[in-house]
Amino acid sequence: xxxxxxxxxxxxxxxxxxxxxxxxxxxxxxxxxxxxxxxxxxxxxxxxxxxxxxxxxxxxxxxxxxxxxxxxxxxxxxxxxxxxxxxxxxxxxxxxxxxxxxxxxxxxxxxxxxxxxxxxxxxxxxxxxxxxxxxxxxxxxxxxxxxxxxxxxxxxxxxxxxxxxxxxxxxxxxxxxxxxxxxxxxxxxxxxxxxxxxxxxxxxxxxxxxxxxxxxxxxxxxxxxxxxxxxxxxxxxxxxxxxxxxxxxxxxxxxxxxxxxxxxxxxxxxxxxxxxxxxxxxxxxxxxxxxxxxxxxxxxxxxxxxxxxxxxxxxxxxxxxxxxxxxxxxxxxxxxxxxxxxxxxxxxxxxxxxxxxxxxxxxxxxxxxxxxxxxxxxxxxxxxxxxxxxxxxxxxxxxxxxxxxxxxxxxxxxxxxxxxxxxxxxxxxxxxxxxxxxxxxxxxxxxxxxxxxxxxxxxxxxxxxxxxxxxxxxxxxxxxxxxxxxxxxxxxxxxxxxxxxxxxxxxxxx
Length: 510
Known about the structure:
Elements: H1 15-24, H2 29-47, E1 50-53, H3 57-69, E2 81-85, H4 118-125, E3 129-134, H5 169-176, E4 182-187, H6 193-198, E5 202-205, E6 225-230, H7 233-243, E7 278-281, H8 293-308, E8 312-314, H9 344-354, H10 364-370, H11 392-397, H12 406-425, E9 430-434, H13 456-460, E10 464-471, E11 477-483, H14 489-503
Helix pairs in contact: 2-3
């Protein structure tokens, strides 16, 4: 290859560049897939992002080349190398959720789906080339790392001695290390925004109900959302264009009808997206947790950059609203509010039924029996903290019935009522916060990521978009997260894109 070949700069390769390269014959889909598979072979032994490689990836790429040569219509992600988070069902691969008890290769039982999850089906239909499935911690239980996965820890390619973020640790690492161009992630409590921010990437945590999450191992049907992680805002928006919208398999997505921009999310991006926009800033009105000294300095610089891009900044617009008082970490956890997750047993039963008639486990009772050796809900289990939630005990007594969750519903209503009032009263277009209060903790240790928006966004169902905003002295990434009311993804993406093109803070990993 000549030095001008774009396949020699995988970090700079975007969905738009792939479209152009395939159309003008600069490279083929097969060559593109080969380049990324070579990157996987070179780095995955160290980074441990991908746990199952798709042996049919090159076959898919060759078929795309054949169809292109024949002048056939192609999908919007034609030839784009993509990875899929392990808990998302994908035909031909076990869905292990990072747990040795759910993988035959480590002595457990395989959950083999009869059909793809809707999000996997959508990226297939968009003609993406799926390269593999990515690593997660056991049952996606932590937003900081994947250290307890049966596949071993995932390493942060940007700063290897720090946590990679979780639970979509492998997806983010695959994107950051240029093993793919975009990846599918999923969040219940920070699992998109944390790894994206930890690895200097763009993550979209959508409004709940925008993207279907049927066929994804659940923690909470009331909070779980699927979204993309990418190296640029444009690529993340293009992926969201494919993922968003109604699916009959997930009735809550009916709420997205009429909420998606007619031309798609990427079409609305503009370098002027911050001009004249009123942006609310982090303060004790949102959460009564201060920023570290270095985070404060980085945030101050980011605020200056927002103003230089034309934004009007509003200091702590939630002051005096009682918003911060609603937050209540779930004991014994110090920082995570798990309310809404009481339905996990019922949700798991729904997930297992979808696997199909030949599934190894079909009910929650069978799931509990198969995993009794490491009871996730028992003393010392990864989800043992759920016993502190008000409706959990009743929900576990009959996992076949959905729990009412009155406290969660009231809490969600309070969050949304305050957000709507604050945005109206201050005529806000978005909030822009540091996604973390301090820099990343060590890879191996007891410290967890100290985020600013996990819990509030997950319980309220609000969208957020992370974007690189600099680095700590250690080299750890610093990121902003743009937050808005329900269904405000288009506005948030435009603002994040404007900030991205004005600052260009992201650095290539490795």
